[in-house]
């Protein structure tokens, strides 16, 4: 004879036992059909799609690979090198600094007459996802030697001076070159850089069509900051040339930031000076 509480407990146990199921059974003890794993071939298009979206986002907002097409930046960069360019900081309105190697869009037909190549299907695809630069993009790569407000001057074979300070460029100017070129095409100059622009020169001084030789264009050889794609930070390929691209120490010398007034120097029209520029903070300078 059991008590009422014992009977209730037994009934509770009985009810619980009747509805207990195992992992392989559904409610009421029916068999549960296991889910089949999704086929790899069905998932592959999804994975490829995600990878492409990520690649496009990285190319657009973070970093992009560019190929060096000429010898104008020797020996810092060799023809055929692949460099990685920081594209993130310009999105925040940051501006380039002296000594940085930057990629920029052709300001005013600087590449006129340069040979172009027709990419094959693989190169077109790789450029679309950002692993190679597009053949349709007319971009150049040079070193910034002057920013807005700077006075840049070349006399005879050099040295190049910025705001009256001579630059020691031995660490990056191509061996055998002189810092300044003695010619009547633009190698001898004195210019004041307007705000919102930069003055660029190649490290292979006697083999670089840069700001010096484009002073007849609409910007007087200056490159609008809004046309700067980003700063080249790493030589990524070939592997045996992997290296960073720091700012040379000569650009950190005391007094370089002094910007004396210079009357009568060529400058870009005022109407162009700040077109599309939002000044904030550029990437931090990296020393060698």
From TrEMBL:
The chain crosses the membrane at residues 44-66. One of its GO terms (biological process) is signal peptide processing. It is a single-pass type II membrane protein. The active site is at 72, 142. Residues 43-237 form the Peptidase S26 domain. SUPFAM superfamilies: LexA/Signal peptidase. Its main location: membrane. Belongs to the peptidase S26 family. This is Signal peptidase I. It comes from Streptomyces luteogriseus.
């Amino acid at each position: 004879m059991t008590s009422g509480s014992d009977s209730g407990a037994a009934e509770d146990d009985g009810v619980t036992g009747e509805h207990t199921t195992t992992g392989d059974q559904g409610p009421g003890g029916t068999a549960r059909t296991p889910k089949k794993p999704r086929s790899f071939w069905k998932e592959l298009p999804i994975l490829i799609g995600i990878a492409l979206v990520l690649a496009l986002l990285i190319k657009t907002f973070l970093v992009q690979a560019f190929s060096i097409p000429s010898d104008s930046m020797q020996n810092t960069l060799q023809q055929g090198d692949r460099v990685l360019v920081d594209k993130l900081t310009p999105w925040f309105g940051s501006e380039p600094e002296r000594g940085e190697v930057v990629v920029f869009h052709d300001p005013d037909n600087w590449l006129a007459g340069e040979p172009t190549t027709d990419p094959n299907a693989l190169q077109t695809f790789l450029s679309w996802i950002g692993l190679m630069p597009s053949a349709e993009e007319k971009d150049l790569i040079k070193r910034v030697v002057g920013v807005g407000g700077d006075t840049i001057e070349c006399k005879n074979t050099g040295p190049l001076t910025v705001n009256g300070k001579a630059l020691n460029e031995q660490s990056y100017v191509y061996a055998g070159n002189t810092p300044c070129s003695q010619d009547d095409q633009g190698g001898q100059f004195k210019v004041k850089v307007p705000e919102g622009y930069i003055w660029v020169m190649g490290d292979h001084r006697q083999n670089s069509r840069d700001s010096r030789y484009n002073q007849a264009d609409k910007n007087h050889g200056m490159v609008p900051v809004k046309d700067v794609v980003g700063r080249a930070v790493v030589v990524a390929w070939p592997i045996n040339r992997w290296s960073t691209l720091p700012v040379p120490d000569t650009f950190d010398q005391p007094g370089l930031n002094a910007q004396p007034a210079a009357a009568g120097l060529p400058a870009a029209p005022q109407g162009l000076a700040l077109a599309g520029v939002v000044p904030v903070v550029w990437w931090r300078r990296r020393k060698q």
